[in-house]
Amino acid sequence: MASQSANLWVLLGLGLAGILFMTRKLKKTIREDFGAFIERLQLLPPPQPAPPKAPHPLTGLTFAVSDVFDIEGHVTGFGHPDWERTHDAASRTAPVVSVLVEGGATCVGKTVVDELAYSISGENKHYGTPTNPAASSRTPGGSSSGAAVAVAANLVDFSLGIDTVGGVRVPAGSCGVIGFRPSHGAVSHNGIIPVSTSLDTVGWFAKDSSVLRRVGHVLLQLPYAVSRSPRQIVIADDCFQQVKIPVDRIVQVVTKSTLKLFGRQVFKHENLGDYFNSKVPSLKEFHGQKTNGEVKTSSIKLLANVVQLLQRHEFRHNHGEWINLVKPVLDSATSAQICGPLDASDEEIEICKSIKNELHAAVNSLLKDDGILVIPTLADPPSKLGGKDILSEDFRSRAFGLLSIASLSGCCQVTVPLGSHDKYPVSVSFIARHGGDRFLLDALHTMYASLQEQADIASKSKLSKNALTREQSAEIAKEKGNQAYKDKEWHKAINFYSEAIKLSGNNATYYSNRAAAYLEVGSFLQAEADCTKAINLDKKNVKAYLRRGTAREMLGYYKEAIEDFKYALVLEPTNKRASLSAERLRKLFQ
User: Taking every annotated instance into account, which residue ranges of this chain make up the domain Amidase (predicted)?
Assistant: First the structure.
């Protein structure tokens, strides 16, 4: 009996060892590949040119392509086995892939995409969902999920994806890598399966901003030009108010990095919804078509509806015949989007096209040649695997509202990782005008190290979350006040500065700035009181002495005013305003 018991324990031990071995083997497989690749292959670059010619610009780099790019001799699978089964191998390689190989890079495989490259979840029930290296319990984002995972897991130096309505930007934000969506039409679409022709762009992922820029220069065929710094950084305040991510931390990182590199003068705050309401008149027509104008809806939410309608309309135009013929088995969420009733008239589609044209002009007008629009990449943290939140109308509306801005305007956008929060990646997005791809790549390259430094400081900060949030919120309110002051909206500026003071009452700048606004509306007593408070907090605040001197002069306190102007000169001997004011008052009372 004892012998049988011993044998049983031996067998049980062997069984457990076998299970442990298999588990380790499975984990090793996941670690090595992360489910990113659907096919391994190798496209080698040509030999290096003989000296003194320069080596190929992408020498030594490896890359992968999403399974929507043709490679000669291989079937392009489009994320679905029925598509692969019903299509022949490609007769030639997509030009965008060839130019990278000719540029010195080695292509090592094809990566998983969402079925028919339609979703933004990153999940694929046919080929398996790639594991998100940055948050294994969460989705990698789609549609170019495998391409983002391959970069995040250091399997390749860069990768190619397709971005229709977030297909590169969403997985970049979800996996914590850089993702670039170029201006619409800037990169050739030949040899690529279309999703929605007027929205599709070829995008790319990288972990290194210099690699991202090198790839961009090759794909965009950019000639040499001097790098330009941004002259305006526009924070889309309303976009940050509608999301469920750590907004204050993201804005703080961008603000501090920008101040360090370019100074305070480049900042501008914008309510993007209001701006689009005034600059995209066809949105009202679209809204009227859908609701008879009875319900008020934000312009950002309307854009979410427009982009989804256009994507569905153009996808069905491209692939409706194949779907009706083959009747592929589709995920319920994809099927609802693709196979459900279109519910759009020809007139509504024409209105959508007008909205695209007007939005293109509006964003270009806002940013001009050297402006950057700052928005959240994602409205929510990456979804949990198998979660249903991505199916909700609210989730989709907030997600596609942000994604629609670049997709519909055709402008270029880059997703920038900013560390992690609650064990999931955090990112921000920068948008530049259509055709501003070089400028955006260069600006990111200039800012990237500083952004990562500030993100690291923010994540390691020992300040309590609430205290940090109050400080950041005060800075945001102050910047809004500065913008209102520039726009000569004095009472609005006073309200914003007052908000900043409520949040952080020991900052001399807030009081001094509010005093400047009070002077403009003739509230001289309030201006004097604010300046006195500012001086008590900071004895070297030159602007506070100047503004108090002005307030006292207007109140008839001429002796005290002269003293303020003189003290400003002590602090800043070359200040012409203080010198002229003191001299004018001195002569007046000689």
Answer: 55-219
